[in-house]
Write the structure tokens for this entry.
Amino acid sequence: MLRDEVPLYARIERDIRQAIASGELVIGARVPTEQELCARYGVSRMTVRQALERLAAAGLVVRRRGVGTFVARDKIERVASRLLGFREDAIAHGLRPDTTVLSRGYEPAGEDDGSLLDVPPTDLVYRVTRLRTTDGEPIGLNVVVLLPDVAAELDGADYAASLYDEVARLLGREVARADQTVEAVNGREADCELLGVTPSAPLLRVTRVTYLDSGRLIGLTRTLYRGDRYYLSLRVDRSEPTMTG
């Protein structure tokens, strides 16, 4: 029985791929349920899940716990060499961005943020957690960490708006530079639930330590992006070595 079922996950995967490519299953459409696919192909749920997991890993579908499996939107390209805010980036891709502030307040910096901001881990920083959506769909979980003197100057800022715009409005200076790192991580259960993906789903973590055009350090942002919706691109040049006599 198992021997007969082994190649069937590939057939299920192929058929769903073809349905997406032909337009039979459009972006956002719900893929038949595991139970429906089991009945259609006469296979076990394990075989169906293997096919769906392969499709999810390829970025073609999104699996939402307790809801179902849906055809994924195209991934958003984030150009790693350009300092763009979330709103600018989303609008450039023809999407409708929105931000919900989940929490805000003063908290100890902790080891990781303290090290990046060069402050003791027990020092207080102002931390704002925000959920990013495009066209109503969760896409990123963003944490802003501001040095306390900066947070005081940004009193009254609208953190549901663009942070860069609010900095320019209230400080009269532009955000000009950031030291950025990018890591692939497996999401924690709470983060994955907010982002509407399965537990331990692959996420892209982008950390930026941010400076004004005056060179002043203002803080950092750390964003978890859904791996099925975002990718980063970076153009690099290999310069020819200079010949010297």
Observations:
- The longest helix spans residues 8-22.
- The chain is about 30% helix and 35% strand.
